[in-house]
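Fresh eyes needed here. I'd like your take on this protein's tokenised backbone:
***
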Amino acid sequence: MLRDNTPNERIVQLEANGGVMENGCTTPNFLPGFNLECYPNQDSTKYIDSLQLDTVHTILRGTLRYKGFCSNTLGLIRLGLLSDKPHPSLQFTDNLTWKEFMCDLLNLKRDTSVNTIRSVVLQQLKNESQLETIDQLGLLSEDILVEKRSNPLDTLSNWLAKRLSYGPNERDIVILHHEVGVTWPSVSREENELKTIEMVIYGDQKYTAMAKIVGLPTAIVTRMLVDNEISDRGVVKPVKRTIYQSILHELKREGISWTEKTIKK
């Protein structure tokens, strides 16, 4: 959901079951070398109160992925592979292959040939790239057995965690990009600025990038609590300046850095 606090204030809501992937996916205008795309991540309006952003005109929290993610995920959705509803084939069938499970999802006989399944999938999706993704993920395999969970989503997630695990020479990356548009009141006129904060962190042989940006702040806050540097008690969000500034300072000492820019408009 996006909040648009212009004179024609409105809340834009994208439907589930592929609506976000189909209608909300855009190409960002930063870091072109990474070939990224962005889509809205859940309800952005809930951050207005917690971050004290009552005066904002528009707010969007998005997720960055490599180009093609939205389209290929949309294909998985349309085939029912991301459904969180229980499926009988995952509860009452022994030694089920991925090809047989695809037949069940497509209402085909289990002895249907792989070529015929491909044709049916292509006819349903009308997208060659989505079909290629289904094939590359091993979802048409006649040999790989499904490690069944209660629903297609959990079953596929369990399979992809193994299929797409990092190899010996691969590493993860975390990219964060913030844009804040500001209008400053002036004596003669209003002045507009765009402030950006950008962070690109790579994993290494010791830690993944995700482990660094999640684990280090947690460790820093734990030390701060032990040393009584945080007087607040209970569940405390890290939006207080006295808390987050100390965390950011120590993160820089640990090699977690970011770039800040201000562009006059």
